[in-house]
Write a structure and sequence with these properties.
Layout lengths: L2 E6 L4 H12 L4 E8 L7 E4 L3 E4 L1 E2 L10 E4 L3 H13 L3 E4 L30 E3 L3 H17 L1 E10 L6 H15 L31 H13 L5 E8 L6 E9 L5 H9 L4 E3 L11 H4 L5 E8 L6 E8 L3 H17 L4 H4 L1
Parallel strand pairs: 1-2, 1-6, 2-5, 6-7, 7-8, 9-10, 12-13
Antiparallel strand pairs: 3-4, 9-11, 11-14, 13-14
């Protein structure tokens, strides 16, 4: 059985990664449509090693007869077109922030809460979480199952690709002018991103948190456990691809470093790389193109009872976006949730 798949936002960094991931994982497609705004219509994008797709205009595209829509066009565009696709019978997996906290839309990380996928029938939409949330909950899940997470304090080190192709372009341009002792005004980021770190991602909220920090807290509660307290500090760093996080966790029951390692060693989606030697950990540049969430530097946190600290890294365009969306689609197929549509 094969399926008709529409990729929305196909010319963006995540859209291109979705097309690449579908091909690499041999997702059972009978037809793939690449969709974007009218100004991108007519461009060409790659699907696999030998297929070229011509981009079609999202505004005029008819989703009738299409099985899955993998959306990554920006929240305001998803707000218009995802419900339109869902009403036409196409199951939408949306990578934007638009539907994540909608009570009728499941927010899913397949390694963590695959059972929530079945709730998609309310609106025919499934939400992909924030990239920084995804990698954290994948690492927390096996620990939460055995020792119950009570509180999380996390500082993120997020690459510019989290802001899309424009973010990557700005880092490149900003770096070049620094080398010739020149300056250019930031366009996308709030301050110079080259050779700098910026403790702001998204807009500020009334309590002083940024919206990115708020997302990590509320999404973790929705995906993993509503009783977990989370405070995040999200920082943009001059790295092209790959998010890193320093995570401090307080558990309800005692936990040792060896017990944590044992829980993580065979956990779905996790690769444990924790050697207490120079370089015995994973950094963002090493995770580029990989599917895993890498966990390193596990140690006791002596400042709280039942405390543990660790470092986790993941490719934000892969597991943080494209791969997670494709994995959700794979669950839909494996559990025959699309059988009626395909027939």
């Amino acid at each position: 059985m094969s399926f008709r798949v529409a990729v929305v936002g196909a010319t963006g960094a995540v859209g291109r990664e979705i097309l690449k991931t579908l091909a690499e994982r041999n997702f059972p497609v009978s037809e793939v449509a690449a969709l974007a705004s009218g100004r991108s219509a007519g461009q060409q994008v790659s699907f696999g090693e030998d297929k070229i797709l011509t981009v079609q205009n999202l505004e005029t595209f008819d989703f009738t007869g299409w099985d899955i829509g993998l959306f990554s066009p920006g929240a305001s565009i998803s707000a218009v077109h995802a419900p339109r696709a869902g009403a036409a019978g196409c199951v939408v997996i949306d990578n934007t922030s638009q539907f994540r906290m909608d009570p009728d839309v499941p927010l899913v990380v397949p390694e963590v809460n695959p059972g929530a996928i079945a709730q998609f029938r309310k609106r025919n939409i499934i939400a992909n979480p924030n990239c920084s949330t995804i990698q954290m909950v994948v690492a927390l899940k096996p620990l939460h199952d055995k020792f119950k997470v009570k509180r999380v304090v996390v500082a993120t080190y997020q690459s510019v690709s989290g802001a899309g192709k424009e973010g990557m372009d700005e880092l490149y341009a900003n770096t070049k002018v620094h080398f010739v002792n020149d300056r250019n005004q930031p366009q996308l980021f709030q301050k110079d991103i080259a050779f700098n770190v910026i403790p702001q991602i998204d807009v500020f909220m009334e309590d002083g948190s940024t919206k990115e920090e708020w997302k990590m807290a509320v999404e973790t509660k929705k995906i993993l456990d509503p009783n977990i307290a989370v405070i995040a500090t999200c920082v943009r760093v001059p790295v092209f691809i790959g998010h890193a996080e320093a995570v401090h966790v307080e558990f309800e029951t005692p936990i040792t470093v060896n017990e944590a390692r044992a829980a993580l060693r065979n956990a779905p989606g996790v690769v444990l790389q924790d050697q207490r030697t120079d370089g015995g950990y994973i950094t963002p540049i090493e995770c580029k193109g990989d599917d895993a969430v890498y966990v390193s530097r596990i140690r006791k946190d002596p400042t709280v009872e039942n405390g543990l600290a660790f470092w986790c890294v993941s490719d934000n365009l892969r597991k943080g976006a494209a791969l997670n969306a494709v994995q959700i689609a794979e669950v839909l197929v494996a559990q025959n949730m699309l059988r009626a549509r395909a027939a």
